[in-house]
Write a structure and sequence with these properties.
Elements lengths: L5 H5 L7 E4 L3 H13 L5 E5 L20 H10 L2 H21 L2 H4 L6 E5 L4 H9 L1 H12 L5 E5 L10 E5 L7 H14 L3 E4 L5 E3 L4 E3 L5 E3 L2 E4 L15 E12 L8 E4 L4 E6 L2 E6 L1 H4 L12 H14 L8 E11 L6 E6 L2 E5 L5 H18 L2
Parallel strand pairs: 1-2, 1-10, 2-6, 3-12, 10-17
Antiparallel strand pairs: 3-5, 4-5, 7-8, 8-9, 11-14, 11-15, 12-13, 13-14, 16-17
Length: 376
């Protein structure tokens, strides 16, 4: 018999109407929209860490509007219509978050985006410049905004070693900590229940329970899994694989002159100014197979790669001390669109954010909640 008191069983661990696994942005948005449309429902969100331990708190704080090379790479791998759909999801999802919260509440800054190209990326730049109208058309179809991307020569502010860059007037950044906190507090206001420190080992679709180690099981008529890249650790889902991105943040750098969100090489490198510190991440396309993992570890190889990037391309006259290094796990697949579906009777998923979770989490949570409520 599990060592669980009667009071714990009827209070904290009582079986809810809706059980959400994962307290990231998608999980919290799903909980909020369920309670908004069904205030009397008992909605419980369980999370293994003291707060969300996935990409929701380990991202770079980009609004995820995208870069030209990333969009064209998507077009080359998927149908153009599907790329328009995902751009629209990014735009509409961010707009929904900004409608629910003030820009101040989530630290949103419409700072613009800059995609940089060095001499080694000459072929990629030629591709982007020759198809710039196509990229602008994709964005216009998705958002109604014309001429989002424009080409510039030389180095953008704060950089060195680049030959060209493409300016994106619609990119933005936000404060990841403020965003997560604001959404958590909104859920509490609507009386969503949270249990942190609950490590779900498995979702048992047959018995409609989650197996939780020391706490045995929690059952619910509706179980919703929003663990993104970690989903296959607890429930097998085709079309989702985990990849790791590593991020560094330096000490404060006096006079750091980066303005906006910077991307390079189809978005595989990214960097920006955060509180006069340099935040830089990515490089998994160079680091290769070791980054095809759901293990949230950091590596010397990633640190060395990103530190070398700093010395080559950030216009400062010293090597800054690295004060933070972390990894975040993305859920990706052969399609960029998220998976929002009922996979077994009463078992739902909202996963595979494709690195766009900051932008699309509100829409995924809304659509997932509508699907769950429709299938009551």
């Amino acid at each position: 018999m599990v060592n669980r008191s009667y009071w714990e069983s009827i209070g904290y661990l009582k079986n809810p109407d809706y059980l959400i696994v994962g307290a990231g942005l998608v999980g919290m948005y799903t909980a909020y929209f369920i309670k908004k449309n069904n205030p009397d429902a008992d909605v419980l969100v369980v999370e293994r860490g003291p707060f969300s331990e996935g990409a929701s708190t380990k991202n770079a704080g980009f609004a995820c509007f995208g870069s030209v090379s990333e969009l064209l790479d998507d077009v080359d791998h998927y149908e153009k219509e599907r790329v328009v759909e995902t751009v629209k999801m990014r735009y509409d999802g961010l707009a929904l978050s900004r409608k629910i919260f003030s820009d101040e509440a989530i630290g949103f800054d419409p700072c613009g985006g800059i995609e940089v190209f060095n001499g080694q990326l000459g072929v990629l730049f030629e591709k982007c410049s020759s198809r710039l109208d196509e990229a602008n058309d994709i964005v216009c179809q998705a958002t109604g905004i014309r001429d989002v991307f424009s080409i510039r020569m030389g180095n953008p502010s704060g950089c060195k070693g680049f030959t060209h860059y493409i300016y994106n007037k619609e990119e933005g950044s936000l404060n990841t900590a403020l965003f997560n906190r604001a959404l958590y507090e909104l859920c509490l206001k609507h009386k969503v229940r949270f249990l942190f420190g609950i490590n779900v080992n498995k979702v048992n679709a047959t018995n409609k329970v989650v197996e939780c180690g020391d706490y045995e099981v929690i059952s619910a008529d509706r179980i919703i899994v929003t663990t993104n890249g970690f989903v296959n650790d607890i429930l097998h889902v085709d079309g989702v694989r985990a990849v790791r991105n590593q991020v560094l943040v330096t000490e404060k750098i006096p006079g750091l002159d980066l303005k906006g969100c910077y991307h390079m090489d189809c978005g595989y490198y990214y960097f920006r100014n955060v509180d006069q510190r340099l935040l830089i991440g990515g490089g998994r396309h160079v680091l290769g197979q070791p980054e095809e993992t759901s293990e949230m570890a950091t590596t010397v190889e990633a640190r060395d790669l990103l530190t070398e990037f700093i010395s080559r391309h950030i216009d400062i006259d010293f090597v800054p001390k690295i004060e933070y290094q972390w990894s975040g796990i993305l859920g990706v697949g052969t399609d960029k669109k998220p998976i929002i579906k009922e996979v077994f009777p009463g078992i739902f998923i909202g996963v595979r954010m494709g690195g766009m979770g900051v932008a699309i989490s509100s829409l995924v949570g809304l659509q997932l909640s509508e699907l769950v409520l429709k299938n009551n």
